[in-house]
Amino acid sequence: MQKLLILSGKGGTGKTTIASSFVKLSEDKVFADCDVDAPNLHLVIDDLSKSITKDYYGMDKSYIHSDICISCGKCFDNCRFDAIVKKEDSYKIDTYSCEGCGVCELVCPVNAAKLQPDIAGRLDLYTEDKVFSTAELKMGSGTSGKLVTKVKERLNMPITRGKLAIIDGSPGIGCPVIASITGVDMVLVVAEPSISGITDMKRIVETSYKFGIKTAICINKYDVNIDKSQEIEYFCKNNEIPMIGKLPFDRNAIKAINIGKTIVDIDCEIGEKVKDVFNQAIKILNT
């Protein structure tokens, strides 16, 4: 199965708006939301069946058994992450601060401090009319990259069918993005014609190139800043990166999203333009 990943380098560029349109335009209807910190692709995808839900375990967290603890304070004295909370004569773990290093378990003379599995999020897989893999990381958990890998692995389950998967990635270039890029066949970068948009576009293009993956760019809301859009086009030309479309600012896109639709579900200019971008992306993917 080929995997087309949509990234932006920054938030707010319209990445998910375009990804959801690609899902509607794709015949296979196999897709994933790898923005596990704030997944929202499901909001504009209708007719989803009941998901198969599974707990996601990140790194182990420590736990102090109060019935065994002798309140010696060795765990408190040795925790470099300040994850041990002293309350009167007892000690507890602040799970938001615990890094799961296990020092408290090591120094505890009575084995009251123990590392144990910790639920760090939830995985959801929809498999009926559409195959949709998504997940949500629990607040305060820091293993987003591992969770993204799990989301992508579920696309490879025997129950999954189809030749093309559309993947909505995370903003930025951090761990979840690196995990998203790994193993995909092509990256489509959605660029924003602004100073920060161009800076972040260059960072994600450089990141994608380090993986040796086919990369193309489209500009969203290009007519908001023509000068910056031309700067993006020059960048593409100078670096031999395919520029596969310029999408206009269209208030109908906002109306579509507010009623839970994609931009190809309604009659609007940007919806027609994004069809050309999809066809161009598939053409490059199959080259």
UniProtKB/TrEMBL annotation:
Keywords from the UniProt entry: Iron, Iron-sulfur, Metal-binding
Keyword Manganese attached: no
InterPro entries assigned: 4Fe4S_Fe-S-bd, 4Fe4S_Fe_S_CS, CobQ/CobB/MinD/ParA_Nub-bd_dom, P-loop_NTPase
One matching Pfam family: Fer4
4Fe-4S ferredoxin-type domain segment(s): 60-88, 89-118
Top-level taxon in the UniProt lineage: Bacteria
UniProt GO molecular function: iron-sulfur cluster binding; metal ion binding
PROSITE patterns in the cross-refs: 4FE4S_FER_1, 4FE4S_FER_2
Presence of the UniProt keyword DNA damage in the record: no
Protein name in UniProt: 4Fe-4S dicluster domain-containing protein
Organism field: Senegalia massiliensis
